[in-house]
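User: Could you go from structure to sequence for me? I need the amino acid at each position, not a summary. Structure tokens:
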């Protein structure tokens, strides 16, 4: 057990007491002194250590739970969570395998569906195709280590990408295939982000409870001729992912 008594809080400081306690716990996690699965002291124990109210401690812990650093298990206590995976694809065009390798996690892919289908209205609009055309649907469950973290449904123009149907997409990269031809290589993307709740399908495959928080990304990828060539819907587990966005000042 970490000796939290070596840390002190300053009751004369303008910094709220709950925030000081939160920073103490967070620093122990980020430094590696607290590892995934470690049990932290109870609210009562913290309140006795620092001579503060339980409500003060509760607020500190609740914020760390909401930020994904801690998790509470009924009748068992509060534990250090698995760290969230920092996803860069919001602002950077890159493939899943490269992203996971960079953060030290082993990527794995399970193909859920790989078929030629008739496009729905949303697919027709995204790919700027027609209702009598055909599209290829590639549905994949992506793992980071042992954990399933995202379901990705990708739709491609059949006339441009028919040869992909011969490939084993559980081991091959979609980007590797599309980047070989200027007609299919994605050079820019437009993404829409939406918070949704997990349904039965997401619950089963992502190993989360129904109603669990999910971040859904709808992405349209464009080639160098500004034609939409790829449309995907990705549903990420909210408890295992965080997303970085880079912005630039307009100077206004």
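Assistant: Here is the amino acid at each position, in order:
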């Amino acid at each position: 057990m970490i000796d939290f008594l070596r840390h002190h809080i300053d009751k004369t400081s303008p910094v709220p007491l709950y925030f000081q306690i939160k920073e103490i716990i967070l620093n122990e996690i980020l430094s590696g002194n607290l590892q995934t699965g470690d049990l932290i002291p109870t609210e009562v124990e913290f309140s006795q250590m620092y001579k503060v109210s339980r409500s003060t401690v509760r607020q500190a812990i609740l914020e760390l739970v909401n930020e994904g650093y801690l998790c509470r298990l009924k009748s068992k206590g509060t534990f250090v969570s698995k760290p969230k995976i920092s996803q860069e694809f919001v602002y950077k065009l890159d493939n899943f395998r490269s992203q996971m390798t960079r953060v030290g996690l082993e990527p794995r892919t399970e193909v859920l569906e790989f078929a030629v289908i008739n496009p729905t209205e949303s697919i027709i609009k995204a790919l700027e195709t027609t209702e009598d055309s055909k599209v290829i649907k590639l549905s994949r469950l992506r793992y980071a280590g042992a954990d399933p973290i995202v379901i990705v449904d990708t739709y491609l123009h059949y006339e441009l990408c028919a040869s992909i149907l011969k490939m084993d997409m559980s081991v091959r990269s979609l980007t590797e295939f599309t980047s070989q031809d200027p007609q299919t290589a994605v050079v820019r993307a437009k993404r829409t982000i939406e918070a949704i709740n997990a349904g039965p399908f997401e619950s089963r495959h992502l190993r989360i409870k129904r109603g669990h928080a999910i971040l859904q990304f709808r992405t349209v990828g464009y080639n160098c001729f500004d034609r939409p060539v790829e449309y995907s819907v990705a549903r990420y587990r909210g408890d295992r992912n965080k997303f970085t966005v880079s912005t630039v000042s307009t100077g206004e």
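One structural detail worth keeping in mind: The beta strands are 70-73, 77-80, 85-87, 107-117, 135-144, 147-157, 188-197, 213-222, 228-237, 241-243.
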